[in-house]
């Protein structure tokens, strides 16, 4: 017997009963971003592998272990994007839209790919909504990004379940000095470090701060602190950000061990985390990357951004039962017609109603069927009302109007009056 076809592990179908929540989430975020003046950009899903190596960093987990990389028919090494920042920077540079200090406030949405070990909240194909701002170097824009997400959590009803963690990595000079001090300290305790941290000490020492190993964590207690190595400029930037968050009343926790898994960050880094989802609790993360554009061949251009994981936020909405009831109803009105003549009249009537009420979600029964079976389908569709066209209604040029949820008798409505009547009883999105 042939093996049944299956989706790739860690890559999920999003089934019709799940898509209303996704669309609700995506719609809420995109409206918010429009309102703050951000513009959407769409980049390809596949890029040259070199792009990610140069931006994310050669010795990060993503580039070392997690990329979906393949050779195409021309022999070029291509990679399914593991994140959006690199491609966004490539796109703005390629099209010259950040030249001459032009400010760009951009956002994107789409699938990303990382070959991680799948578990709840961690997938191999996952979806992000990301946002990148170019040519603004002050803490005011870092604050705006965080304020915007705070508003989003409020609109979604999940504010109490998320916590903001903040850190500053400083400029690359101050980070360099800190790295030296950290390496010196950790090297003196080399034998007490776990194997992974010993390796990271050589390749990417700041990532040792991120360790989950208890022995290494114990060594880190007395390690030099990043905050003591910040230069004046980074310190002032960080203070400016905190003052703005305080002004708006956004609580945060300072986490000196927050270093992020991508190498391009400088100064501000932040993560929104929840304890409601188990191990994969970071729902949104980002920071400033003032050196990245230059590193990728552009003029010095400050940048800052973040990305949120849609799967994790959808899971959080579900876990906290914060899904508005009306979003799962996809049909307002269901039209049942009995007999061929009624079916033809019903089709024409439905189109006339749609002309007048373009936002009405009107479903016309397909596949004929008895009174009982059409009614069953009307009910199952979730519609609020059924419209009925049978012999009697045809003779009188009316339609039966029957409430399906709750009280109310069936009434007869003249065909010409139907749209006006529906407009009074259905709230249209
Ligand atoms: P990141 O921290 O790698 O940052 O990912 C951002 C978010 O994507 C995470 O906080 C998480 O919610 C979600 N995410 C990441 N990996 C997975 C996964 N395997 N399964 C499910 N969700 C996942 C970035 O990608 C940066 N490009 C963010 C950024 C934009 N920084 C500046 N601009």
From TrEMBL:
Database matches in PROSITE patterns: AA_TRNA_LIGASE_II
InterPro entries xrefs: aa-tRNA-synth_II (IPR006195), aa-tRNA-synth_II/BPL/LPL (IPR045864), Anticodon-bd (IPR004154), Anticodon-bd_dom_sf (IPR036621), His-tRNA-ligase (IPR015807), HisRS-like_core (IPR041715), HisRS/HisZ (IPR004516), HisRS_anticodon (IPR033656)
Pfam families: HGTP_anticodon, tRNA-synt_His
Compartments where located: Cytoplasm
Record-level GO BP terms: histidyl-tRNA aminoacylation
EC number, UniProt record: 6.1.1.21
Keyword set, alphabetical order: Aminoacyl-tRNA synthetase, ATP-binding, Cytoplasm, Ligase, Nucleotide-binding, Protein biosynthesis
Cross-referenced CDD domains: HisRS-like_core, HisRS_anticodon
Keyword set includes Nucleotide-binding: yes
The Aminoacyl-transfer RNA synthetases class-II family profile domain, residue ranges: 1-358
Keyword Chaperone found: no
Taxonomy, superkingdom: Bacteria
Annotated residues for binding of L-histidine: 83-85, 114, 128, 132, 260, 264-265
GO cellular component, one term: cytoplasm
Location (main, coarse): cytoplasm
SUPFAM superfamilies hit by this protein: Class II aaRS ABD-related, Class II aaRS and biotin synthetases
Catalyzed reactions per annotation: tRNA(His) + L-histidine + ATP = L-histidyl-tRNA(His) + AMP + diphosphate + H(+)
Gene3D superfamilies hit by this protein: Anticodon-binding domain (3.40.50.800), Bira Bifunctional Protein, Domain 2 (3.30.930.10)
GO molecular function: ATP binding; histidine-tRNA ligase activity
Subunit architecture: Homodimer.
Similarity comment text for this entry: Belongs to the class-II aminoacyl-tRNA synthetase family.
HAMAP family: His_tRNA_synth
Descriptive protein name: Histidine--tRNA ligase
Organism: Pseudomonas moraviensis
């Amino acid at each position: 017997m042939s093996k049944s076809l299956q989706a790739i592990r860690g890559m999920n179908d999003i089934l019709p009963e799940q898509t209303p929540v996704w669309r609700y989430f995506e719609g809420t975020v995109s409206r918010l971003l429009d309102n703050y003046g951000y513009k959407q950009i769409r980049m390809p899903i596949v890029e040259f592998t070199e792009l990610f190596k140069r931006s994310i960093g050669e010795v990060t987990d993503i580039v070392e272990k997690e990329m979906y990389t393949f050779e195409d028919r021309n022999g070029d090494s291509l990679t399914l994007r593991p994140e959006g920042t690199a491609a966004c920077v490539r796109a703005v540079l390629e099209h010259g839209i950040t030249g001459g200090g032009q400010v760009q406030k951009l956002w994107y949405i789409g699938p990303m790919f990382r070959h991680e070990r799948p578990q709840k909240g961690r997938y191999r194909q996952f979806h992000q909504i990301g946002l990148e701002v170019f040519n603004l170097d002050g803490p005011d824009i870092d604050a705006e990004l965080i304020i915007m997400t705070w508003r989003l959590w409020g609109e979604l009803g999940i504010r109490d379940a998320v916590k903001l963690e903040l850190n500053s990595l400083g400029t690359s000079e101050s980070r360099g000095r800190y790295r030296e001090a950290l390496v010196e300290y950790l090297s003196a305790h080399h034998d007490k470090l776990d194997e992974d941290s010993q390796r990271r000490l050589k390749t990417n020492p700041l990532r040792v701060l991120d360790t989950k190993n208890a022995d290494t964590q114990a060594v880190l207690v007395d390690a030099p602190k990043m905050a003591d190595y910040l230069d004046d400029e980074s310190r002032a930037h960080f203070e400016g950000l905190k003052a703005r968050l305080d002004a708006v009343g956004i609580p945060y926790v300072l986490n000196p061990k927050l270093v992020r898994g991508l190498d391009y960050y400088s100064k501000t880094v932040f993560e929104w985390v929840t304890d409601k989802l188990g191990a994969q609790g970071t729902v949104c993360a980002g920071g400033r990357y003032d050196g990245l554009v230059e590193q990728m061949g552009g003029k010095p251009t400050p940048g800052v951004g973040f990305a949120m994981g849609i799967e994790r936020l959808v899971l959080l909405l579900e876990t906290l039962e914060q899904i508005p009831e009306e979003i799962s109803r996809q049909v307002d009105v269901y039209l049942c017609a009995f007999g061929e003549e009624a079916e033809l009249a019903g089709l024409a009537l439905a189109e006339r109603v749609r002309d007048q009420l373009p936002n009405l979600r009107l479903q016309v029964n397909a596949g004929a069927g008895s009174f009982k079976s059409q009614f069953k389908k009307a009910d199952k569709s979730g519609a609020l009302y059924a419209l009925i066209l049978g012999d009697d209604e045809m003779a009188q040029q009316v339609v039966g109007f029957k409430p399906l949820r709750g009280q109310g008798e069936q009434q007869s409505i003249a065909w010409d009056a139907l749209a006006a009547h529906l407009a009074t009883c259905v709230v249209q999105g």
